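Reviewers of the previous submission asked for a worked example of the structure-prediction workflow described in the proposal, so we include one complete record here. The input consisted solely of the amino acid sequence. No template or homolog information was supplied to the procedure at any stage.
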Amino acid sequence: MTVANSVGIVTAQKAVFDQPITLSSGAALPRYELMYETYGTLNANASNAILICHALSGHHHVAGKYAETDKAAGWWDNMVGPGKPIDTDRFFVIGLNNLGGCHGSTGPSSINPETGKPYGSTFPLVLVRDWVETQARLADRLGIKQFAAVIGGSLGGMQAMRWAISHPERVRHCLVIASAPKLTAQNIAFNDVARQAILTDPEFHGGDYYEHGVVPKRGLRLARMLGHITYLSDDGMGEKFGRELKSGEYKYGFDVEFQIESYLRYQGDKFSGMFDANTYLLMTKALDYFDPGRHFGGDLVAALKTTLAKFLVVSFTSDWRFSPARSREIVKALLDARRPVSYAEIESAHGHDAFLMDDEPYFGVMRAYLNNIAKEIAA
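From that input alone, the workflow returned the following structure tokens.
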């Protein structure tokens, strides 16, 4: 039985790449695997494919469920499905777990074929441009020469931009949501504090904790708690939790007293039980390193002049981690590069997490833009 407006029961697939890949760092992997899912049907000329690029803690399970008994659907199930803004009745949608991930794609917790042990500390750093190259290889495997759209929020939006720059002829539309042209010093600082929480955890063992049969849960828990604060807005936290006490009165101690403390600790505990600490380190470093203008003399305009795609850039008013001002930098650079771009700034109290939320104006913008893409395909 399929849930209304859902892609229904889905199955993850694994693509094995036996040809080596040389990464931006100069390190090479002799082979690697990517986990991915697809929704909808690829049309005869493969012109209706959409790639969804995930954010820091995302993965390939974008929509649907693996079993009827699953409590939760994919991380963007509200956006992707029949009749939804990214309509699987019209588009062939691909979600994948990036290289270095911890949900089935080759990453630090995978077995290194040369040693028979988990890669651990020996797994190389991976940049956004490296992800794009592996995604392009997957597209080749699936017979897709050009995407109707590449879409991503946050770190996913950075991947969408990199796609348009690295493979201009392969992207017709680039949708960059709640993202930035590069991180500010403050954002890099947040990432470093999160990494230090993991790196200084006694159970980290230099990244080789797998061999010790332990997990640096305390560090990962703190990293997630810090990150989660930055994904929410002050108004949103105030409205949801305020200064509400769990017991209604002060306990005069250091245990959980405020509801916001309880919420953050729950999120930290949940995340530390399902995510890999080494992957968290890799993902945050990829964020830090992202700078598409770097190879163009620091000029973002010059980088974007290489693109051929049409752009939609979306930001949210209460997002202070990737503020609307950062999205407007992308828009201005695109205009200066004389590239076609549409921009929407959505009123929202959800902070950075707004790109994942049900929001009528946001969904309206996405639906309208994607309707136009569908019309292009049908023309």
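The mean pLDDT is 95. We consider this example representative of the routine output the project will generate in years two and three.
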